[in-house]
Design goal:
- With about 260 residues, this protein is α/β, with parallel strands linked by helices.
- The chain has one domain: 3-Layer(aba) Sandwich (Rossmann fold).
- It has 5 helices and 11 strands; from the N terminus they run ββββαβββαββαβαβα.
- Strands 1, 2, 3, 4, 5, 6, 7, 8, 9, 10 and 11 form an 11-stranded mixed β-sheet that branches.
- Strand 3 and strand 4 form a beta hairpin.
- The longest helix has 25 residues.
- The chain is globular and about 50 Å long.
């Protein structure tokens, strides 16, 4: 059974040896697609495209609970969660990667817990991302000489629309680094399921633009697709190196944060 899971696009399937498709029944309905498991970098890995293989689910319609539950059912305990984001800082341009350590939730109405009671259950979320995985990702980004930031806060918006200029200015004024649409509730659900999580944010744009930089245009969907496509091989290389180094045994407290 795979202990490592990745929420990635369908392009990751080609990396797997002996790929096997799994249709997992969950109490929360169907995942975005069947989970595909196989060998990569000498490890058993599970892949699931969070938006579906044909990218049919917008961020506010992704069945996050079913996706995370399916990974847990297959034995995943360490989850790598790359995502495309807009930068809120001039120095973080397209192609840069941020190793997330905090999130801020600005979504509305998304089912975001497995613990609807009884009994009443609470999960610590002071440190939502695993320190061990974050250190591995940062070390590999440094070794690859990729532009990156070793910490960062993502503000997660509802989508599918992008931010207004006023919202983008507000997010930036709070000191937050990037804006995206999928880390919530994906990350807290994974933590409720006892998983370690690494959030790897790939900058594709500058959100609604930057104050004082009139040459920076607001984001477009086409820009996101083009920048992500130009950097996807770099992301695959990074993930492969991280997968190869993830230790068999966990030395963190991520599996015991719910009580």
């Amino acid at each position: 059974m795979p202990s490592i899971g990745i929420f990635g696009g369908s392009g990751f399937y080609e990396l797997l040896d002996d790929a096997t498709e799994h249709r997992v029944d969950t109490p929360y309905g169907e995942p975005s697609d069947p989970v595909v498991t196989g060998s990569w970098q000498g490890r058993e890995v599970a892949f699931l495209p969070r938006h579906g293989a044909d990218h049919r689910f917008p961020p506010h319609r992704v069945n996050y609970r079913a996706n995370v539950w399916a990974m847990r059912e297959l034995g995943v305990t360490r989850l790598l969660a790359p995502c495309a984001v807009g930068s809120l800082k001039a120095e973080l341009g397209p192609g840069a990667m941020i190793v997330l350590d905090q999130f801020v939730d600005r979504t509305t109405g998304r089912p975001d817990t497995f613990h609807d009671g009884p009994p009443v259950t609470h999960t610590s979320m002071a440190e939502p991302y695993c320190g061990t995985l974050r250190a591995l990702v940062t070390e590999e980004l440094t070794a690859l000489d990729r532009p990156h930031q070793p910490t960062g806060t993502i503000v997660v918006i509802q989508g599918p629309r992008f931010s207004t200029r006023a919202e983008s200015r507000w997010f930036s004024a709070q000191g937050w680094d990037v804006v995206g649409m999928t880390q919530y509730p994906e990350v807290p659900l994974a933590r409720e399921a006892g998983m370690c999580v690494a959030g790897i944010a790939l900058v594709t744009d500058h959100d609604a633009g930057l104050d004082g930089h009139p040459d920076v245009a607001p984001v477009s969907h086409q820009q996101v697709l083009e920048v992500f496509a130009a950097n996807v091989e770099h992301l695959k290389e990074l993930l492969g190196r991280v997968v190869a180094r993830i230790p068999d045994e966990r030395d963190c407290g991520c599996g015991s944060s719910t009580g």
